[in-house]
Write a structure and sequence with these properties.
heterodimer, A: about 110 residues, Ubiquitin-like (UB roll), globular, B: FAD/NAD(P)-binding domain, FAD/NAD(P)-binding domain, 13 helices, binds flavin-adenine dinucleotide, binds iron/sulfur cluster, binds FE2/S2 (inorganic) cluster
């Protein structure tokens, strides 16, 4: 949806294989090797996590691994910077609530 | 512990140039970069650079990056990527995080070339997804081939704001507006003019009040500010955008020299806290040197020269070059640096007076500084604009470059020597069209896209106007569209009569359109029929 198919200067972008992965249990598509955040943004997903105290949404801000706004739970590991972590087939990506997944956050309540 | 003669931290233009200079003199050099790709900022810069030939002007940034990397590797420089330097300790011991483990190295000399970080401003809603840094926009579209959104508000009118704005349009986004709290556009007029003629409005003395949206940005409110930066009540405007892009300045990334015990100074001219350095970029800690934006915010061209200066000094320090050669090189590099630092945008003189007249005494356009375009009558006095009499004789180049910026590729590429800038590269280009071939090399080479060819003899009542064009799809010959003026206002129908693309022009097509003769000096952009109204 947001991919640049034909760029006036860069022409085409080299992309890996088309792969599927999970976001909160839902099947998504992206290209292997591109940052997870890029695949998510292309599918219209902007919210990567909610802050611990005020549950405010956060998404990509710096796109180079410096701000930590884009962290998510990837294959069970929280705080993974999705803007610099390459997508792999079958990855299990979860929106992060504070420092945990939604299910875990709800069990605490 | 592994020892190298020189350890460079950061593989951007500064770090790579320093590595090249040192390695060319025979030193053994190791470069670390935390990124998976080398090149620093350069790989996101898809526009043609300013400067002169020795600064690689008219080359696109990423190509300069590719060349530097190849040259460094060819000289035997070792580059380790995905390696974040986390500290420099006593006796120049460098601690590096590689993957999930630490490694320890020692350098006889260390060069810190870590670049800069982007500044942010806070406003209501600024943490919403959809508010991004200008660097993030560049990374998403120019590295990963993804549009950051559909319609963008650009906050900041410096070169970064206007260049990234242009690149967003190239990627297929719309720009709702460029705003800046200052009363003048901070970037080069020629950069601003590129997007103004595509219909992008500039709002100076404006700031952002609020980003709207619950889960992500769905709009923005901007407001005018008075000279004390206080909002003017009733001046609010709502913009329908899904991306708010912040281009509000850069700060040196100088954490490592601070940790290493270098004496620091807060220097607003350099963009913040930087280590105190001598003329060879050595800090107050012996054998620890700096290069590039980390030592003071400038640009890639100066970062490369700073890297050379540092590499040269280290080669001398270690006895790899004689005094005379060292002095000669240093003087040469310092001269090239001074050239870049001259002009109305130089670091210490961006004062009001510098924004009123050119160094030749021409009055600068106020609309260029506030709206991003000049009127035809304002333009007519400048030395790049041939007379009406000349224009009636056939194809005539029109140079709409009216500020003293460090740039001269137009002079360099003209096979007939029609364009004169002289030794001082900030001089305004002077056009003497008598022997012009109409080849268009100047049009395609100008990084400011400020040169056009006008042929008022094309047909009875019709003129042919040639413009540089870097958008897709490239309109075909015979296709119809709308000619726009410098403010992006549609004039009326135009027909594409000629398209020229060559490898030498590197992606900049020359589009020639047929327009009624009275628009010959007005029509400066072609909007194909299929593109909707507005930016
Ligand atoms: C939109 C935009 C347009 C621009 N246009 C121009 C232009 O037309 N002409 C021009 O001359 N300049 C331009 N510039 C400026 C230019 O890109 C920078 O000034 C230049 O890249 C600075 O070079 P550098 O080597 O100092 O830093 P950088 O290019 O930022 O490189 C620094 C490198 O250091 C690495 N690093 C940082 N910390 C560490 C660490 N602890 N460990 C390991 N590695 C680390 C980073 O990953 C990075 O790769 C532009 C900049 C922007 C943002
Ligand atoms: S069109 Fe060709 S000959 Fe004429 S000024 Fe430009 S570069 Fe020189
Ligand atoms: S007209 Fe010449 S000096 Fe001005 S921006 Fe273009 S190439 Fe540079
Ligand atoms: S967006 Fe800043 S770390 Fe990923």
């Amino acid at each position: 949806m947001y991919r640049i198919e034909n760029h006036p200067i860069l022409h085409q972008f080299d992309k890996g294989q088309r792969v599927s992965f999970l976001l909160d249990g839902k099947e998504m598509e992206g290209f292997a090797g591109e940052p997870i955040a890029i695949a998510l943004r292309n599918s219209g997903v902007l919210v990567h996590r909610y802050t611990a105290k005020r549950a405010e949404p956060r998404g990509i801000f710096c796109a180079i691994g410096r701000c930590n706004d884009c962290v998510m739970i990837v294959d069970g590991t929280p705080n993974v910077r999705t803007c610099v972590t390459p997508l792999q087939a079958g990855m299990n990506v979860e929106t992060q609530y504070g420092i945990q997944s939604r299910g875990a956050a709800e069990n605490n309540d | 512990m592994i020892r190298y003669e020189v350890i460079v931290i950061g593989a951007g233009p500064a770090g790579l140039s320093a590595a090249i200079e040192a390695a060319a003199h025979g030193l053994q050099v190791l470069v670390f970069d935390e990124n998976a790709k080398p090149g620093g900022q350069l790989f996101k810069q898809i526009h043609k650079f300013f400067g002169s030939k020795e600064h690689q002007a008219r080359e696109r940034g990423f190509r300069i990056g590719e060349k530097l990397l190849a040259e460094a590797l060819g000289l035997g420089v070792k580059v380790i990527l995905g390696a974040q330097v986390i500290g420099i300790f006593a006796h120049r011991q460098v601690t590096v995080m590689q993957g999930d483990h630490m490694e320890y190295y020692v350098g006889n000399s260390i060069i810190i070339a870590t670049g800069a970080t982007e500044n942010v401003i806070s406003f209501s809603g600024w943490t919403l997804p959809g508010v991004i840094g200008a660097g993030a926009a560049q990374t998403m579209m120019n590295i990963h081939g993804l549009r950051p959104g559909k319609k963008v508000l650009m906050v900041g009118s410096g070169n970064v704001g206007v260049v990234v704005g242009y690149q967003l349009i190239q990627a297929g986004c719309q720009i709702a507006a460029v705003i800046d709290g200052a009363p003048h556009i901070g970037g080069y007029g020629v950069h601003a003019a590129k997007i103004a003629r595509m219909g992008v409005p500039f709002y100076l003395s404006h700031t952002i009040l609020q980003a709207h949206g619950t889960k992500s940005v769905s709009g923005a409110t901007i407001v005018e500010v008075d000279s004390f930066w206080q909002p003017v009540p009733g001046s609010e405007k709502n913009l329908d955008v899904d991306v708010i892009c912040l281009a509000v300045g850069l700060s040196p990334l100088a954490e490592l020299p601070r940790l290493a015990g270098c004496r620091m100074q807060d220097n607003p001219l350099k963009g913040g806290l930087v280590p105190v350095c001598n003329q060879y970029n050595e800090t107050t800690v012996k054998d620890i040197y700096m290069a590039g934006d980390a030592a003071g915010i400038e640009e890639a061209s100066s970062a490369m020269i700073q890297g050379r200066i540092t590499g040269n000094a280290i080669a001398h320090q270690h006895g790899y070059i004689e005094n005379t050669e060292f002095d000669q090189c240093h003087t040469k590099y310092q001269g090239a640096l001074n050239q870049l630092r001259a002009g109305m945008f130089k670091r210490d003189s961006r004062k009001e007076t510098g924004l009123r007249y050119t160094q030749e005494g021409y009055t600068l356009s106020k609309t260029l500084l506030t709206k991003g375009f000049l009127s035809t009558s304002e333009l007519s006095v400048f030395p790049g604009i041939p007379t009406e009499v000349r224009r009636r004789q056939g194809v005539t180049p029109i140079i709409e470059c009216t500020q003293n910026i460090p740039c001269n590729p137009c002079q360099d590429v003209c096979p007939k020597g029609c364009i004169k800038i002289g030794d001082k590269i900030t001089n305004l280009p002077v056009m003497s069209a008598s022997s012009c071939l109409g080849c268009g090399l100047c049009v395609a080479s100008c990084p400011g896209q400020a040169i056009f060819l006008v042929d008022e003899t094309y047909e009875d009542q019709f003129a042919a106007v040639t413009i540089p064009y870097e958008l897709v799809p490239l309109p075909g010959e015979g296709s119809k569209g709308v000619a726009c003026d410098r403010a992006g206002i549609p004039l009326g129908e135009a027909e594409v009569i000629h398209i020229r693309t060559t490898a030498y022009n590197d992606g900049t097509a020359l589009l020639t359109m047929k327009v009624p003769i009275e628009w010959a000096m007005e029509a400066r952009f072609f909007k194909p029929d299929h593109i909707g109204e507005g930016g």
